[in-house]
Amino acid sequence: MAEILPIRLYGDPVLRKKARAVQDFSEIATLAENMVETMFEYGGVGLAAPQVGLLRRLFIAAEYALEEEEAEAEEDEQPRSVLKNLYVMVNPRITYRAGEQVGTEGCLSIPGVYSDDVPRDLQIRVEYQEVNGEPRTLEAEGYLARVIQHELDHLEGVLFLDRIPAELRRPFMEEHRSELAEMQRKAKAFLRELRTEQK
Ligand SMILES: [Zn+2]
């Protein structure tokens, strides 16, 4: 049975650290299963290992049918109905980038906060390893390319908030100040609890 893992919230220092390359693949399949279960539980389109407190270079990304058209449609549409592909990307690297897109992003570590102004590359090629270590290459564009770039950023300790253009970021952070402060409080409380459990 896969396990639902607690998601680290904005303010948790683990989200700001650089993840280490995966060399030992022996526990990666189990970790990936748990991350998939966790992502579905919280209704995300991607989840990176640092978001569950593990500084390993690994993330999952879900591709849903029709999401590209619907991502551009009204906010009240439900774009996550049909799962088309589920990628587990270990030690991913982007080896080609082209074009630009600006769109909406949120993050399971920053629940309820969305920005419509996140710039990303439109097309990418990503080289990665599967859960068993097999090398793979994927070319992605549009929404999937956005998800992959968002998740890859997590492996560098970068959040979508950091990608909002500087002139928009300040008002955005101001607008969401109390929500973000609340997350920081919860993140600290979680870490205190974790330390108590480990004693
Ligand atoms: Zn995220």
Summarize this entry quickly.
The protein is an alpha+beta fold and 199 residues long. It contains six helices and seven strands; from the N terminus they run αββαβββββαααα.
What does this structure look like?
This protein is an alpha+beta fold. It has one domain: Peptide Deformylase, CATH 3.90.45. It has 6 helices and 7 strands. The strands form 2 sheets. A 5-stranded antiparallel beta sheet has the order 1-2-3-6-7, sandwiched between helices. Strands 4-5 form a two-stranded antiparallel ribbon. The radius of gyration is 17 Å and the shape is globular. The model has no long low-confidence stretch (mean pLDDT 93).
What labels describe this entry?
single chain, 199 residues, alpha+beta, Peptide Deformylase, 5-stranded antiparallel β-sheet, two-stranded antiparallel sheet, 6 helices, 26% strand, globular, binds zinc ion
Overall domain count: 1
Number of strands: 7
Strand order of the largest sheet: 1-2-3-6-7
Q: Note the overall shape.
A: globular
What integer value in Å does the Rg equal? 17 Å
In this structure, how is the largest beta sheet organized?
5 strands, antiparallel
Strand content: 25-35%
What is the overall number of helices?
6
The H/E string reads: HEEHEEEEEHHHH
Proper CATH architecture: Alpha-Beta Complex
| Mean pLDDT, all residues | 93
Distance between the termini: 27 Å
List the bound ligands: zinc ion
CATH topology: Peptide Deformylase
Uncertain stretches: none
CATH superfamily: Peptide deformylase
CATH class membership: Alpha Beta
